[in-house]
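Task: sequence design from structure.
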């Protein structure tokens, strides 16, 4: 959907109002892939991922997400962030597989470093963060959701860290993110088996906090945010940082090693072959 079409959507217009559409327009001049609407009254920013067709995370999109997070973190009026998608079937399809297939090493390295930055920036955000998961959320999409403080997901979609099913290994910080939400045992099951869970299954293990219908997902996220923002920021932020810093420091200490592992792993012939088959199947499935 084009930006013009997006702005014309009655639901979006009603939800945001004229003033916000204006703010959204001015920020989209910086990136049309990440749409931001910061409500000056509440301090809540709705951030819509908008990279058609499926919000897959390539280097440029990740950089845009990172820049958006930086801007919001530097804006003192901003206290909360709701992360969602402009595509009402796919929240985020995870990493752009094309970044990993037959890659140039420099770009692959930059890609992974940027993903690490996004993770640290969102996972450790000073803002109260809520994922309004309005579509499928595999792999890197699930990672973004688990970076947030709270998850509200629309029924009848799927979510999970499915890397092992693709013959790849979820990095330790993907696993740490998941473990922080659902605990060790459920993470072990979910990650080793590469489980893609339905919204209901994810809700049963606590991977999502609320299951809702598509029409109300953003309103529910706004309502939930009100309760988070009733807590004094310093108390909430310090509590969050106390809980999240150990994992962030773990990645900081092993950043270069993690990049090296990723590059070595992805460039293996066997992994390239597996990715090639996977892409072929995705394309076949998309054509059907
Ligand atoms: C010792 C230590 C070693 C460390 C090693 C590290 C290893 C690396 C770890 C990296 C981790 C990876 C995490 C990832 O995120 S990998 C990506 C995983 N994502 C997926 O598998 C999702 C695949 N997509 C889907 O299942 C579906 O597309 C969907 C999201 C459910 C949406 O379905 P849909 O029916 O609405 O859309 P569809 O027709 O399938 O797709 C439309 C077009 O989009 C293309 N596409 C889909 N997903 C991706 C993607 N992730 N990347 C790039 N392109 C994607 C799809 O091919 C269609 O394209 P086209 O129209 O045919 O051109």
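Answer:
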């Amino acid at each position: 959907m084009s930006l013009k079409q997006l702005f014309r959507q009655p639901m979006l217009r009603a939800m945001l109002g004229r003033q916000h559409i204006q703010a959204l327009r001015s920020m989209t001049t910086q990136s049309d892939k990440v749409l931001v609407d910061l409500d000056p009254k509440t301090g809540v920013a709705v951030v819509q991922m908008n990279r058609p067709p499926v919000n897959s995370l390539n280097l440029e999109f990740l950089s845009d997400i990172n820049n958006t997070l930086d801007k919001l973190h530097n804006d003192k009026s901003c206290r909360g962030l709701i992360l969602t998608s402009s595509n009402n079937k796919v929240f985020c399809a995870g990493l752009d597989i094309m970044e990993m297939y037959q890659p140039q090493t420099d770009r692959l390295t930059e890609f992974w470093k940027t993903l690490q930055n996004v993770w640290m920036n969102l996972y450790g955000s000073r803002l109260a963060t809520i994922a309004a998961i309005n579509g499928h959320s595999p792999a890197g999409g699930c990672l973004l959701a688990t970076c947030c403080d709270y998850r509200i997901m629309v029924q009848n979609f799927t979510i999970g860290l499915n890397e092992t099913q693709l013959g790849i290994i979820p990095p330790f910080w993907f696993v740490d993110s998941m473990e922080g939400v659902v605990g060790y045992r459920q993470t072990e099951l979910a990650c080793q088996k590469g489980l893609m869970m339905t919204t209901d299954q994810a809700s049963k293990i606590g991977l999502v906090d609320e299951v809702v219908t598509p029409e109300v997902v953003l309103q529910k996220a706004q309502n939930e945010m009100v309760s988070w923002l009733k807590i004094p920021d310093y108390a909430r932020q310090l509590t969050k940082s106390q809980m999240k810093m150990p994992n962030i420091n773990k990645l900081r200490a092993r950043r270069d090693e993690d990049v090296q592992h990723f590059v070595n792993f992805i460039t293996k012939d066997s992994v390239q072959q597996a990715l090639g088959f996977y892409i072929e199947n995705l394309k076949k499935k998309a054509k059907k």
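Residues 53-54, 56, 89-90, 93-98, 136, 138-140, 162-163, 166, 168-169, 171, 261-262, 265, 282-283, 285-286 surround LQQ7U7AH (CB under 6 Å).
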